[in-house]
Amino acid sequence: MNLVNDPAQTTPEEKQTMIQTIVNKHVTKHRNDIVAIGVYGSVANGNAGPYSDIEMHIVTKDGVLLESHEFIYPPYKIEIGSIERSKIIEKAKRYECTWPIWAGSFINVLRVYDPEGFFETLKIYPYSHNEEEKRGVMREFMIWEPYECMGKIRNAYAKGHLTYIPQGAHQLLRKASLLVGLQNNSFYSTQSKMFEEAMQLPSKPPGFNELALLVLSGELTDSEVVYKHCEDLWQGLNTWFDELGIQYKVTSLPF
């Protein structure tokens, strides 16, 4: 059987050479229309692996639309997002439950063409939300995701569908990690390190680290043990919300 070689490895130097090629081509063609070009993601964070892709912002003047691209150019996977100045600022100001995952793409930007220092200004916008907005997002997310996830875990346990418990544990931990990031106003450098980075943050629910260590160890074959850790985290989430003063339950019908 012939193995598919892609995704293929590239060195940091090869990635930088390709980035500069992309910058040169765009600046040569569109210098008067481009505000800034930056790299985000693992390459910008300095933790790219040999199989990491290249992700780039191309910020244009308002009213100028350049084509965005996402493509495979072996051995590279490249994503180039072209966006107008006012629109990327609007996106950077957005605040929602997945903020801890994507905020870094506006904060940790490797400037490769930025004559006006635009990216230095851009990185303040993801922090423009206030405490009331944060609590509202956390409250709504608790209802939409962790609460429903725990219901599925309990259903699976009650019905003896124990093969779902490890999957449910991973999902519950991911949702709890988003809440931890929101509460601490911290974004994660990469989704693959989200659990480890969340464990280091100061404010988090009881039971979080214990389930995180279990999931990260890969020792999820004992469904009874995994289920107990899920219950412990769920109790911890509710205790944590009480301590934070975030009430997600109502005492009467809202209509």
Descriptive report:
With about 260 residues, this protein is of the alpha+beta class. A five-stranded mixed sheet has the order 3-4-2-1-5. α8 (about 145-160) runs antiparallel to α9 and α11 runs antiparallel to α12. It has helices spanning about 10-30, 40-45, 85-95, 100, 105, 120, 130-145, 145-160, 165-185, 195-200, 210-215, 225-245; strands at about 35-40, 55-60, 70-75, 75-85, 110-115. It folds into two domains: about 10-125, Beta Polymerase, domain 2 (2-Layer Sandwich); about 130-245, Four Helix Bundle (Hemerythrin (Met), subunit A). It starts with 11 loop residues before the first helix and ends in an 11-residue tail after the last helix. InterPro entries: KNTase_C (IPR012481), NT_sf (IPR043519), Polymerase_NTP_transf_dom (IPR002934). It comes from Pontibacillus chungwhensis BH030062. This is KNTase domain-containing protein. GO terms for molecular function: nucleotidyltransferase activity.
